[in-house]
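Much of what follows relies on a compact textual record of a protein's fold. With that in mind, consider the following protein and its fold in token form.
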Amino acid sequence: MDRIYYDAIEGNPVIAAVKDMDGLRRCCELEDIRVVFILFGDICSIGDIVGRVKETGRLALVHVDLVTGLSSKEVAVDYIREHTEADGIITTRPPLIRRGKELSLCTVLRYFLIDSMALASIKNQQSMVKPDFIEVLPGLMPKIIQNISSSTRTPIIAGGLITDKEAVMGALNAGAIAVSTTNQEVWEM
């Protein structure tokens, strides 16, 4: 992993996860936001969306699963690499993480923890695909975050349902390196 990504996330542990143009505009106005997770767009607009983030000197990671018009195949990662200035990708699909690594992109493997089988999947998959970061959702599970962080060397980002300082601190104290949130009030803490 390139230290620039780790240092940016560790240095500013609240990541702005943007789901629309209003959120994008707002996060780009906030001085303390260094990393932006882009959770919207389509193949016609994603280059411009990423460009707006990059113009403000922030790192931009695109959730490729959420970009309308991209497939679930590795070529989606190639498209992001060739047609945007994105620093990295976020996905729930291990093959896309592999392709992102091949293309020297920062990679975030996102997991929705709905049961014990999903938890076991983290331990199995992350060692095979070796993402730069693992994002676990929902992020309001300090005991589970602690369990995951003690069993992997991959940095953990907690996301989903992070709405206040207590949730941020709970995730960070449990071993997460950062939190991602669409909640703009949390961006300003």
Observations:
- The mean pLDDT is 94.
